[in-house]
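tool=predict chain=A
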Amino acid sequence: MADARAIFVGDTQGTLLLERLIGREDNSAERARLLGLVAELDAEAAIFLGDLVARQSARAWTVVDACLTRLRARGVRLAGCAGNHDLFPLPWRGYDDLARRGLLGPASWRRVTLGAARVLVLDSNRRALGRALWDEQLAWLRAELADAEREGSVRAVLVASHHPPWTNSAVAGDAAPLLRPLLDAFYDAPKARVWLSGHVHAYERFASRGKHLVVSGSASAPRMRLLTGARARHPTLARVPAPSPFGWLELRVVAGELTLTHRGFRHLRAPCETFDVVSL
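tool=predict ok
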């Protein structure tokens, strides 16, 4: 089986003026550093977990475009989930922004093959998609999962969406009710190992029905407070500093063995560290 490596980056959006006015952190310098590091990582594919920008404007895309250009020049394949910020206020414009940068395929969902692993990139923006496309995506996901089960060379399937099934965010809630049909297909597929998402500006990891649910949305967006102790909605497996480090995920597929690592830095001048490692 071929070796492969992918990186997953969630929520590279900047801080909106309104957010600054109410005291949310501005991580512009951290954003530039993180995207510069990502652009130099040795990877076969880079998959963005949505909310690449905070608003629809050419200026908002400037820093992200520089990273994407460098990745393309090095032959790194690109893919991405559509985020709610990417699609606001005009979903058609947001989808076009992502498609023109090679982050979407013919549809807003796609497969990325990485050696013995497959990543199924989904669109969790149900209202923007509409019922017909939502149902089409669900049928596609079921067919892809069934095909992976039949294919002997596939060891594991990873599913990626912008909105997380579970989170302990004090600001955002679980998207499991929204994602229910997609989530049921994921749970029913033996080779489906992990659901990756962004949206919540933090790093979280949970175990659910023998699967991993991982949230990695703290690339540079203003970070969110997580509920802990008795107030937490779900028991967490992540042992990372609070607030979450600025980070990304790295997937290694070596001789059919898969490892997912959360790496990043605690503050602008801190060295890069490994904060979490999961064997899939």
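The mean pLDDT is 94. Helices lie at 17-21, 28-40, 58-73, 91-100, 126-150, 176-188.
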